[in-house]
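DM from R.C. (forwarded with permission)

"hey, sorry to bug you on a friday — could you get me a structure for this? deadline for the figure draft is monday and I only need the backbone to look sensible"
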Amino acid sequence: MNAMNYIRQNRRFFVSFGVCVLFALTLLMPAYAAEKPSEMSPQAKPVEHDPKVFSPDPSYEEKKYDAPGQIDIYGGKSRFDEVRPILELGRPIYLEGPFEKGINILGRKNAIYPGFHVSGDWRTAVGYNENGAVETGLVATRLNLELDLRLTGTERIHATMTPLNQGGNFTQKEFFGDDRDNDFELRNNLNLDALFFEGDVGTIAQGLSDSYNLIDLPFSFGLMPLLFQNGVWFEDAFVGGAFAIPAMSSPKLGISNMDISVFGGFDKVTTPAVLDDAGTLADHSLSVYGATTYIEANEGYWEAGIGRLDGEDDFDELSYNSATLAFTKRYGRRLSNSLRAVYTFGQDRNNAVQQTADGWMFIAENSLVTSLPSTLVPYANFWLGLDRPQPLADGTGLLKNTGITFETNALTGLPKLDDTGHDTWGGAIGIEYLFNLDQQIVFEMSALQIMGDANELGRAAVDDQYGLGFRWQLPVSRSWIVRADAMYGVLKGADDIAGASVEMRYKF
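My reply, with the result:
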């Protein structure tokens, strides 16, 4: 039995062991990372302390806190009418005035300020979709709930629920179209989509030891979502854990800020490269682990990552590795550019069966800096996909952020162009206008071209495609947003696709 098989078969032991190690660090690292003596330049020298040169701080114990008076100090600016959580118990979020004294359970230097908040949004849309031979009109709704139990300034337990949908299927009623289903479909679901704990080893250690330290080690574990590179390379919720080493720098290397994240998951992992017998995403018998880094240097910032997706049982031959590198920078006063590369490799299928994960993806994201840099944004994004590159963990393809014609609205099933990028090249050109930052409108044209005869050889599942996309959003109040989406796609060798939807969203 090799080491990798042993680790897979005993993964729960290793996860439990990792949690114990983190707890041990909270007890042992304060002594190791105690606060260091202050350093000063050779030109400076310490002076003796003289308490006579200091006067007592002012006391306001006899004066009641005056929030409007504090606002008047800044020119009498009015209060921002923010969206409040639908439920707030305990300590509220972002209110004026002094905070109450914390509870000393985990230590004086990591006091507990308990608060339970429920926020989220409720989306309802009417849509019409024409997916080739299937034509439907429907109304659909979904409810997204974020449940947050805040403990200390750095520790919390967070959960998410979507009680009106099951996976990608939403509560809906089809009411027109040649292929309508007249039945009302209530898809209730009380399962948790996420439930995780997050905290910081340094602050936990401070509370337990009652001494300050220099440790900065945030971590999380549970059923948790992770996102790297804007979701292009990694966007998934899985059972596992992660920790980060943040806020590093190196003047010699010209690095102003750098962090490293390490993650691992052993359940609920998904990827387009691994499907069940029914052709749906498999979320079992898969593990994922890897590391990423974010580096601010060279007048821009770098993103890099390496990881492995491990399959078990029937999915063992579908395991693969993934590496990524990206650089983002503004050039002069006219161009903002991001260059991304994703390399998928290491899959070894039995009997020379066609691989589902291999090859390269190159993506160039560009936006022009206009005379209205915050509100008028022309963009042009391009890609080149060789073979079958895949994200490390995600439910969609690598092109989902390339343009609005490559993404659905996650509610009415708005059609989209092929987002895999397998043996294709192309781009999306559009313009976004935000008016006075009070609404959004986007127009886009896109094209997808097959690499040579890739579709005839079975390396690509589609042929050439062309699309037009439109989006408009307007906040009609602090909580209500209206949104409209429309797209039309021309597919070579297949029926055209089209769709439109109008949505009302209530945020709380």
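R.C.: lifesaver. The radius of gyration is 26 Å.
me: no worries. Confidence is low (pLDDT under 50) at residues 26-35.
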